[in-house]
Amino acid sequence: MNRTPLALVVTVIAGSALGAPLQFKAGTVDPSTITDVRTAMQAGERLPTRVLVQLDGPMDADRRAAIEASGARVLDYIPTNAFVLDIRRARMEALDVLPFVERVIAFDAAWKVSPDLGFRQYETPEMRALTASGDVPAVVTLFPGADSAAAANAARDAGLRVVSTQLEGDRFMLEVLGAPAAVRSLSAHDGVQWIEPAPEITFRNSTNRWIVQSNINGSYPVYDAGIRGEGQLIAVMDGRVAVNHCSFSDPEGDPIGPNHRKIQAYNTSLGYDFHGTHVAGTALGDSGTNNDARGVAYNARLVFNVTPSFSYSAVFNRLSTHYSQGAAIHTNSWGNDGTVAYDNMCRAIDDFSWQNDDNLVIFAVTNTSTLKNPENAKNLLAVGASQDNPNQGSFCSGGQGTTSDGRRKPEIFAPGCSTRSSTGSSGCSTTTATGTSMAAPAIAGAAALVRQYYTDGFYPTGSAQAEDAFIPSGTLIKATLLNSTVDMTGIAGYPSNREGWGRVLLDNALYFEGDSRYNIVRDVRNGSNEALSTGDVIEIPFTVNSNMEELRVTMVFHDAPAATNASFAPVNNLDLELDSPFGFQLLGNVFSGGFSNTGGTADAINNVEMIRMANPLPGDYVVRVRGTAVNIGQQGYAVVISGDVTENNFPGCSAADLAEPYGTLNIFDIQAYIGLYNTQDDSADLAAPFGVFNIFDLQEYINQYNLGCP
Length: 710
Description:
The protein is α+β, with helices and mostly antiparallel strands. The chain has four domains: 1-107 and 516-650, Jelly Rolls (Sandwich), CATH 2.60.120.380; 112-197, Alpha-Beta Plaits; 203-340 and 359-483, Rossmann fold, CATH 3.40.50; 667-707, no CATH class. The protein is 20% helix and 25% strand. Strands 12, 14, 15, 16, 18, 19, 20 and 21 form an eight-stranded mixed sheet that branches. The protein has a six-stranded antiparallel sheet with strand order 30-29-28-32-26-34, with no helix packed on it. Helix 9 packs parallel to helix 12 (436-455), helix 10 (312-324) packs parallel to helix 11 (344-355) and helix 12 crosses helix 13. The protein is globular and about 75 Å long.
């Protein structure tokens, strides 16, 4: 990938949040009313193995290093500015002297139990049968590092049936069944972090191809550029896909696998389900002719498994399996309409996306009136359904947001009303179906086309160039899709909690040779050298050449998964800003009348932020991404800028610029020079007497470093 230099990283000091409340799902807690465990330490009492530490502001890299130097391990974030620590190997005296630590308190059992436990009403026969005797199915999440066998024994001792024990990311989950009081009693076990009701998963029920590309009947600009899904794999979790339907069959008779025409992997027994076959057909089906059995990314191929039962870990593990089989786009037309909570299923999706940021997970939102679960997860792309031609600007189906903690969902729409796609266990039949289930695979197909745009090297020239090819992150694919959206005229207000950012229109955000609308992108992975910590800021300078095109800027990041106990899911906070050459600044997500407005406050909770200007005046602008509060890890991000724009490359830095990100002088450049100096590389020999490595070379490097970047 051709990378453009980033601007200087600037550090700012975060403000204090002295005495901020702790926001648990079980209730809001005033930490000042709880005894600090350091008092117990001074009295010689035994300390708990896990504690909650509240800081005087957000976490940053230096604070994390100091905490970890004490031997403590940071496990999770609890709003506000509090962190779950494993202190089994900690030196408490080292933790005690840290000036930014306000309090250290024990993790109370009352914070471990969902208020919904024992009160959820189930609908499916399977779940009703499980609960008929008065027992409740529940999922018990353990702290990272906790002994799963000990927790399972404790559950059995309480009279519970342990259905399964599975690893999800860095922590075990137990599925248990038993009396509500017995389930609640597990909160006293040291290794238990959270207990909640098991989820209930249900399904969410040709014009798509041109509507998502151009919205002009018969116009396929993305196909015309040679992008039809070649080289892309889409993962579908749904009912069984009919492998003998003409949309998926292989006329040559090749077995399922790398040589099969349409199916890379089928991770369960073969069979037929109407819903799964219809969904897969919309995303990637191809009968070989331009008819209703052809999907949006019709040259993409399928990785498949059925939906999980009530296992959160199965969601994480199936996503991971599909990724290991080559799929980076994952479409899901099912959900849990029994809750609006950010639960373990949401956390599993966010955790997968946080750890594997090449991926984009897509979910259909509920067809009920109110947003449900797991479309309320932070990192997935939540999809609603618009009407079909000629009313594609109107609403069809989808629950209205916000999420329970105020975030904007749904995010994007595609046609899902009377969508025609594949049906039948064999043959080439098609039929119509309606619902968000039909819209999500259309977005998945569009996402595969966007991914191919980058993997084939269309950015930045607008034509396929092998030397420009790169693998985009899921955040860049999501940002590109959202940057393409149009207001649905049949829904009042934009953006809104009904339509999110609107209906996808790919031609708005994919630049091809000859187009008047150009793109500038940034793609930074979580944990990379270019990722942000608290106080870091990056700048992207560019020029608006005319006011003939709308200017749109979209920033997306995959946030760290929230603690399952927390009532507030956001963990890290990046903010988007735009400085104009005329003295005003625009902030992400501050809108009036469908376009950005001056004033307002930075958005502290959404991991999608957008700025729109209908008729931007020509001049030099600067987009800025600010690391306002990065409490867990180092935060990656993606930015897409679209309009009649030209990127302004910074002049080169001094000779001291030795390491990525180029255009910025920082500790990585110093480390690179020290490495060259220690190996007596000729490039480190900067001063006379040449041929000798000494203090004069080091002084000359410091001089070069202090010259900085223009």
